[in-house]
Amino acid sequence: MRSRRDSLEFALLGLLAEGPLHGYELRRRLIAVLGPFRALSFSVIYPQLRRMVEADLITEQEQGSETNLSRRKRIVYQITKTGMSRFNDLIGRSDAKSWDDEFFEVHFAFFGPTPLANRLRILEGRQRRLKDKAEILRSDIERMGETTNSYLSEWKRHNLEAIEREIEWIEKMLTTERKS
Q1: How many Cβ atoms sit within 10 Å of the Cβ of residue 148?
Q2: Least C-beta-crowded within 10 Å: which of 27, 38, 62, 103?
Q3: Are 15 and 21 in contact (CB under 8 A)?
Q4: Looking at the predicted structure, is the pLDDT value of residue 33 above 50?
Q5: Is the Cβ–Cβ distance between 102 and 153 less than 8 Å?
Q6: SS3 of 114, please?
Q7: Nearest Cα to 14, choosing from 94, 112, 126?
């Protein structure tokens, strides 16, 4: 499960690189980055934030309640120099992990500060990965023929269509990036 933890760390650093945030706002923005279908309960986020505080990637500071309705103080998280260095290292990477299913969406969410050469390598890597997956699915569909489970066959065709759409989108992104 290390990969999921790494992608969560990357996303948190990216959000905190934009400015300090409290836990609830971090969760809201994480859902915007990672999507609403990723399980992001506070029991996942807060332990990750604790590890990042212990690693000196971020700091936490209590702020008084803004209203008298709640006695609970908000904890605001802020990126440290070490955390910013780690974030810059992460956006500077363009290895196989950068374009796998777990990390690509996080990398793409923070393409703004990512150097152009790395954006291109990540998009090209993602394109290769998707083409490989599409070829495997085509082969599976061809091997299955009409005699096997029609639902499984339909599911594979659906996945292939989704991958082909993403390949088209990646090709458009590459064209745009190469012009910049």
Answers
A1: 10
A2: 62
A3: yes
A4: yes
A5: no
A6: coil
A7: 112
